[in-house]
């Protein structure tokens, strides 16, 4: 078997298409004994892509949806390798695999055992549902925003037709075929516009200078209809990802209220939600200077500056960039993330209120989930770990420690 055949098989399995027992056995043997680390990583990426396209069922990344599932996969994998060694007589070679990072082989084995997903298998063992729903279906967010012009006029962008949607300050505001908005012209009458996304919304914008902005849910950006003078300044609330058009003669600054981010030409993410415990600036490429009062720091690619509430100094770290940018790429990514932080993301994306019934301070999860699924599907996947369960009433979600009894 080769990687192409393996991807075909795992795609069929993930989609629920029948695969012969003979091919399943060959696939299992290949993942456990023959596949290289690089091939397993390629297989995992292909599998993740299939799962991320599924919208009607809970989806997860086999590597590490949550610590609980990962530990189950590891235990099962050890059982699999022991059994395979006994059958094939390749005891030494099989046992060597345990020392290698074959996380996907473990997941694939469990996947094949049930012909479905690890989450599905765990769910079938529970007599009671982990998500109690009362007459509601919470759909995921989508591209929607409101553009507020200088005169106070508001344009609901998700309902606006393609083409020119407004004339302001001598420039035209255009809704492109992609759904994003952009500016055309160079009027001298500079005015300020504000683009706002509600809870359950996201949107893309091309600023008058050609810079690109992605806005996450419950966010806003205020900017001029033309950039004049020595600087380009915008104001951000919530979260946004920026790709700045280079112009060394006219530096670009993003103001969040708590700090300023000064850039020349770069890609970076700013998370400045009022309900988070810190404002975080993460640099993907280029160079930025982050300033909070008299305190400044210069970031290099791959680093993050965090300014906790009430603090005067930045904390510098090297985060997982995939996790930081997951929202922009249509994903939730968790890396030992506390359930409260996860539920803040859920609240913004599904436009729901959250409450807690019990102590959840030490409950953390790790893994990848799609932002395309319903809130119920997302929560069912998390609850499959047995660490927590949920009750949904209208647009309110109650988070309860432990498994449903």
What does this structure look like?
The protein has 405 residues and is of the alpha+beta class. It has ten helices and 25 strands. The chain has a 16-stranded mixed beta sheet that branches. Strands 1-24-25-22 form a four-stranded mixed beta sheet. Strands 5-6-7 form a three-stranded antiparallel beta sheet, with no helix packed on it. It starts with a helix and ends with a strand. Mean pLDDT is 79; it is low at 55-77 and 93-129.
Q: Summarize this, please?
A:
With 405 residues, this protein is of the alpha+beta class.
Task: Output the keywords.
single chain, 405 residues, alpha+beta, 16-stranded mixed β-sheet, four-stranded mixed β-sheet, 10 helices, 25 strands, globular
Largest sheet: 16 strands, mixed
Which structural class matches the secondary elements?
alpha+beta
Low-confidence spans: 55-77, 93-129
- Counting DSSP H or I runs of 4 or more residues, the number of helices is 10
Give average pLDDT, whole number.
79
Q: Between the first and last Cα atoms, what is the distance in angstroms?
A: 44 Å
Radius of gyration: 24 Å
Give the helix level as a range of percent. 25-40%
Shape label: globular
The overall strand count is: 25
How big a fraction of the residues is strand? Answer: 25-35%
Topology:
Layout: H1 3-15, H2 21-34, H3 37-53, H4 67-88, H5 91-96, H6 103-114, H7 118-124, E1 131-134, E2 142-143, E3 146-148, E4 154-156, E5 163-168, E6 171-175, E7 181-184, E8 192-197, E9 201-206, E10 212-215, E11 219-224, E12 232-243, E13 252-255, E14 260-263, E15 267-272, E16 278-285, E17 288-292, E18 295-299, E19 304-308, E20 315-317, H8 321-324, E21 331-338, H9 339-350, E22 353-356, E23 364-370, H10 375-383, E24 388-393, E25 396-401
Parallel strand pairs: 1-24, 2-9, 12-13, 22-25
Antiparallel strand pairs: 3-4, 3-8, 5-6, 6-7, 8-11, 9-10, 10-12, 11-12, 12-15, 13-14, 14-17, 15-16, 16-19, 17-18, 19-20, 21-23, 24-25
